[in-house]
Amino acid sequence: MPNGPTIPIGGIYAGLFSRRDGTFHWTVMVPLNDTVCEKFHATEDSNGWRYEHTPHTVVTSRTACVVVKIAQLNNLTIEYLDRLLSTIPMETLPADQGQQFTCRIWFREAIRRLHKAGVLQCPSVNNLEFELKDQASSHYMNLERGATYKVLTSEYSK
Predict the structure, then answer these.
(1) How many angstroms separate the CA atoms of 153 and 135, rounded?
(2) Is 86 exposed, middle or buried (0-12, 13-18, 19+ CB in 10 A)?
(3) Hey, which residues does 69 pair with through a beta bridge?
(4) Phi and psi torsions of 80, nearest 5°
(5) 131/87 Cα distance (integer angstroms)
(6) C-alpha to C-alpha distance for 78 and 75, rounded to whole angstroms
(7) Please, what's the b/e burial string for 107-121 (b: 16 or more CB within 10 A of its CB; e: otherwise)?
(8) d(Cα 112, Cα 120) in Å, to the nearest integer?
(9) In order along the chain (158 residues), what is the average pLDDT of each group of 10 residues?
(10) Which positions ≥6 away from 109 have C-beta within 8 Å?
């Protein structure tokens, strides 16, 4: 499988990874260099849900579907983003009442907190989610046929 495209340094990205069943794993990512991104996300294992941030070699990922720029990094650090995102509870909060907790619900709260902190401008988490889901769903079959992920820019988050 060929390497995916370079993700430009200096941005904050939403990364949707295929679960190979038409659904996606939702993450926030920051490129560290030409091949590696710091990935912030909620992940589930035998002990339940937990927050994780870790370097991830996206360019060789077989499951990365879309990587969508949602903000400029400006002078922010990985440590600052970690402090902001690590405090998100591993449960559905009132803004998403009635929905089971998943990485998508964690991602939605991450966007709200990044917006509130002035890291990005995203007045409608619903619009951003729809845009990302639409982009990933549109590219999913290409990914299944061996294509690499696409790098895009959001219209709903700056």
Answers:
(1) 11
(2) exposed
(3) 13, 153
(4) -65, -45
(5) 26
(6) 10
(7) bbbbbbebbeeebbe
(8) 9
(9) 86 96 96 95 96 95 96 96 98 96 98 97 96 96 92 94
(10) 88, 93, 95, 96
Assess contact for 64 and 2: CB atoms under 8 A: no
pTM: 0.96
CA distance 135 to 125: 15
What is the secondary structure of the chain as a DSSP string? -PPPPPPPTTEEEEEEEE-SSS-EEEEEEEE-SSSEEEEEEEEEETTEEEEEEEEEEGGG-SSEEEEEEEEE-TT--HHHHHHHHTTS-SS--GGGTTS---HHHHHHHHHHHHHHTTS---S-HHHHHHHHHHHHHHHHHHHHTT---EEEE-SS--
Phi, psi of 79, rounded to the nearest 5 degrees:
-65, -40
Q: Tokens standing for 44? A: 């589930």
